[in-house]
Specification:
Largest sheet of chain B: 9 strands, mixed
Shape of chain B: elongated
Number of strands of chain B: 9
Oligomer: heterodimer
Distance between the termini of chain A: 16 Å
Largest interface: A-B, 59 and 58 residues
Structural class of chain B: alpha/beta
Number of strands of chain A: 9
Order of helices and strands of chain A: EHEEHHEEHEHEEHHEHHHH
Radius of gyration of chain B: 27 Å
Number of helices of chain A: 11
Radius of gyration of chain A: 19 Å
Helix content of chain A: 25-40%
Strand content of chain B: 5-15%
Order of helices and strands of chain B: HHHHEHEEHHEEHEHEEHHEHHHHHH
């Protein structure tokens, strides 16, 4: 039977919070009651000479562009500049088992009862309970309190698989693309949907990096946010790219991806015209990218995330390279990323091998 | 000289205009409350929210006045009413219990607009008891035998009796709810209209090829999120809508036995498309579908050896639902799940059921790999063809695993035959080729539903109020007839409107 984890452990020595920023970190004040026990990794995008003030009392490390260049050397080319995609550098340098990443315009949301939502606690709950990608449960996540597997759900599938990703949602400003923002500038997400669910195997989804948790040991190397921003033809597809690669690899390795709770309050609506410029090419390319990911298969020999990722990069170069040169560059950057990851995480490969057999 | 209005009357007039801003009327003195109520009616400002405000005061006079004036709660449907007519819908109820009085009375605000097909479980001996005020047809064992032959009648015993209703319906949409389910309430306490929600689900596109993280993008206040491919945003037709259950969720016997106190109290405000190629257990407890597209794929085929009269002693809906999902995936049709909820009554003892063999649970283990890998040929382009192909695959790959699958395959083919013969007979409304057996139920078809229950009334107070305010209602009528109309309506038109008012002045609002 489904038994939820209780009480929820803090995991304060096993989880890093990664925050990309170019502005300031004032938003952390609101999160203080929930974030203070944790170590923060701040990745400063944009002008490295600017000083980002971190509120007192937080334990953190901060990296700007100079640090990234210094640490990675020539491999720094795979980390985006002037785009929040640079956050994946934080994933790479972390030494912890779990990562939670959040944008600096995301605040604490409230449940319908008025209670503040501890987003981190919910992500941890999601990550520590199994996923069920092989059969859809109509009462959603059976491991949440008050829910269970419904009649007809095969018993042999009730153990579930380890959860690699916990994808949270947003109240207030929804994560719409530029065309939708232009058509519906006033629409706000006010619907609190009290559910977490596993995204079925074989189904792709648009992964948003604003409120995201993952098990770094299980899937970290797949969380590469691509080449975006300065000098690149595309923006606002960093998390999408990471999400599609991650989902294909999770499906291959038998890992789960959950979506739903927790909600955060997204306060800032970005400029839709600026967004349109960034997304423009992506909107067309995505029509080729989606069938590509839907039909890509990885061979049995790919038993680690790194091997899967390298294999994926070959497919990207071969098939998407025809769509635009950008993908050839991206495929190379994907390889560079894995090389950099392995350099900074020499024992990472071992942990990833366990992915197939690990039950938690 | 006209008497200037009093401060009180001015205040009340102002209040009428601003009623929507009030949250509580109980501090008002009784006489002012009543005055306010009547003026609200006169001003045409009595909507559901305002009515609730008055009722929440709990003042007897107000409640009795509401009753006397025959004011009823209106359920505002979410129906896209322009395209879907009530006559496009059949509500099919499988009667496993003889007395449907309280069941139908609870559902009256929702069901009374629609035609009901009530199919009595052929194994049920007692006569059905059906309250007045519903447009309905009842089918019993003799009707079933007449339509499909005595040998096929076994197909429709127990929970499977409702499939006969699917077979004989002539409507575009079917909604089916178990006879132990009642209307649920959402998080705001409003009564849930599952018919309206199912129809909304079925008449908005489904999106099975890519997951939308804000769930159904066609709901109000939602949309496709960033990263959702534009070419997939038109979606596909939704052919099947699977609803959920509060209180007694649809668990199997082992689960319910292990957690005897567990009840589902979580109302999750969610509708979503089940992705293509994802399998799910489709529960028959609260379901709706487009009859022509999916009807042939919902069949009574997998009958357990010791199938019982409790849901957790059956598996027929799970089996047919999985077939239906594979077929929908193959034909490019969508399946949605989530809202609406129904409230499912406590029933049965799971421990008792556990003492029977767990055949259903064991069988599910065998079928999952089959459903995950079954592929239908491209040549199967209709639902009937798909079912026939599925039956073939079932026999080939599962027939040797357990004889029950061979029977299921036979039943599936039998169903397709029946669907083609009985199911596609076009008939004029009221055709009694398969008809209702009069002696089996009390109450017949009638017009507008009457108030079903009359709570105890303080007769003296009612008379007092009637004496005091009865004249006011006819004054309203008189005032309306006196009012100078600025428009240029012809005299005949005005007469028609006046005649209408004469008939409806007691409750001049559209009713369910």
């Amino acid at each position: 039977m489904a038994t939820p984890v209780s009480p929820i452990p803090l995991l304060k020595d096993e989880l890093d919070i990664v925050i990309p920023t170019i502005r300031n970190l004032d938003f952390l004040e609101m999160w203080r009651p929930f974030f203070q026990p944790y170590h923060l990794i701040i990745v400063q995008d944009g002008d490295p000479s600017k000083v980002i003030k971190v509120p007192e009392g937080f334990d953190y490390e901060l990296y700007n562009r100079n640090d990234i260049n210094r640490i990675l050397g020539p491999k720094a080319s795979c980390i985006s500049f002037k785009d929040s995609a640079c956050r994946c550098f934080g994933f790479m340098v972390s030494k912890k088992k779990y990562i939670y990443t959040i944008d600096d315009d995301c605040f604490v949301a409230k449940e319908p009862s008025g209670k503040d939502i501890n987003a981190l606690e919910q992500h941890i709950k999601n990550l520590l309970t199994p996923s069920t990608p092989f059969f859809f449960n109509t009462l959603y996540d059976p491991y949440q309190a008050g829910a269970d597997f419904v009649r007809g759900y095969p018993f042999s599938l009730r153990e579930g698989v380890p959860t690699a990703v916990s994808h949270g949602l947003w109240l207030n400003i929804p994560d719409y693309d530029a065309p939708t923002q232009l058509v519906k500038p006033r629409e706000r997400n006010t619907r609190y949907v009290d559910a977490v669910m596993t995204i079925p195997k074989g189904t792709l989804f648009p992964m948003c990096g604003m409120n995201l948790g993952f098990n770094r040991e299980l899937i970290g190397p797949a969380m590469y946010f691509g080449l975006m921003g300065d000098g690149q033809p595309i923006g606002r597809y960093d998390d999408m790219w990471a999400g599609w690669c991650t989902k294909v690899i999770c499906d291959h390795l038998g890992l789960g991806v959950k979506t739903g709770l927790p909600y955060i309050w997204h306060s800032k609506a970005s400029n839709p015209f600026v967004n349109l410029k960034k997304e423009y090419k992506g909107i067309y390319w995505q029509e080729e990218i989606i069938p590509f990911f839907q039909t890509t298969t990885l061979p049995k020999e790919c038993t680690t995330v790194q091997k899967c990722y390298i294999e994926l990069s070959k497919h990207v170069k071969a098939k998407l390279g025809k769509v635009d040169e950008y993908f050839i560059k991206l495929a190379d950057a994907m390889v560079t990323w894995i090389e950099a990851w392995d350099e900074l995480n020499p024992s990472g490969g071992k942990a990833a091998e366990l992915a197939n057999g690990a039950s938690k | 000289m006209r008497t200037p209005p009093s401060l009180l009357s001015l205040t009340i007039e102002k209040a009428v205009l601003n009623l929507s801003h009030f949250s509580d009327l109980s501090p008002l003195p009784d006489h002012i409350l009543l005055d306010l109520f009547l003026r609200t009616i006169k001003a045409g400002k009595l909507n559901e929210k305002v009515l609730k405000l008055f009722m929440a005061t709990g003042k007897d006079e107000v409640l009795i006045l509401i009753q006397t004036l025959n004011i009823k709660h209106i359920l505002t449907p979410v129906l896209p009413t322009k395209d879907i007519k009530d006559s496009d819908i059949d509500i099919v109820i499988g009667a496993l219990q003889p007395d449907l009085t309280s069941f139908l009375n609870e559902w009256r605000p929702v069901f009374s607009r629609f035609h009901l097909i009530i199919v009595k479980d052929p194994d049920l001996k007692e006569q059905l008891n059906i309250p007045e005020g519903f447009d309905h047809h009842v089918y019993t064992k003799p009707d079933i035998e007449k339509a499909v032959g005595a040998s096929s009648t076994i197909l429709f015993s127990g929970y499977s009796c409702r499939y006969f209703g699917y077979l004989v319906s002539k409507k575009k949409y079917i909604i089916s709810i178990d006879d132990d389910c009642l209307p649920a309430r959402d998080n705001e306490g409003n009564l849930v209209d599952p018919v309206a929600q199912h129809i909304t689900n079925l008449t908005t596109p489904a999106t099975p090829f890519f997951f939308n993280t804000l769930y159904d993008p066609f709901r109000d206040g939602a949309d496709f999120v960033r990263g959702y491919p534009f070419s997939l945003r038109s979606g596909v037709t939704c052919a099947l809508s699977c609803g959920l259950w509060l209180n007694l969720a649809d668990y199997d016997a082992p689960t319910q036995a292990l957690k005897p106190q567990q009840r589902n109290s979580q109302y999750v405000d969610l509708v979503m498309t089940v992705p293509a190629r994802a399998l799910l257990p489709v529960s028959g407890i609260n379901i709706a579908f487009e009859r022509e597209m999916v009807g042939p794929a919902l069949f009574p085929a997998l009958r357990l050896a010791r199938e019982g009269k409790l849901r957790w002693e059956t598996i027929e809906d799970i089996w047919s639902g999985m077939c239906a999902k594979v077929i929908c995936d193959h034909l490019g049709l969508g399946v949605k799940t989530g809202l609406p909820y129904v409230w499912r009554s406590d029933k049965g003892d799971p421990i008792e059921s556990l003492k029977k063999e767990w055949q259903g649970v064991k069988l599910m283990e065998e079928v999952v790999p089959f459903f995950q890998s079954v592929r239908l040929p491209r040549t199967a382009t209709t639902t009937e063809d798909c079912v026939a192909e599925m039956a073939k695959s079932v026999r080939e790959r599962l027939g040797s695993v357990d004889p029950v699958f061979n029977h299921a395959a036979d039943a599936m083919l039998q169903w397709v035959k029946l669907w083609k013969s009985v199911g596609s007979v076009s008939s004029t409304p009221g055709d009694e080729g398969v008809g209702s057996s009069d002696e089996d139920y009390s109450g017949g078809e009638s017009e507008a539903p009457e108030c079903s229950r009359t709570p105890p009334v303080d007769r003296e107070l009612k008379d007092k109020l009637f004496r005091k305010y009865g004249g006011y209602i006819s004054t309203l009528k008189h005032e309306f007839s006196k009012k100078k109309k600025k428009g240029t309506l012809p005299k005949e038109a005005r007469q028609i409107l006046f005649d209408w008012w004469s008939v409806h002045n007691k409750w001049p609002y559209p009713t369910v």
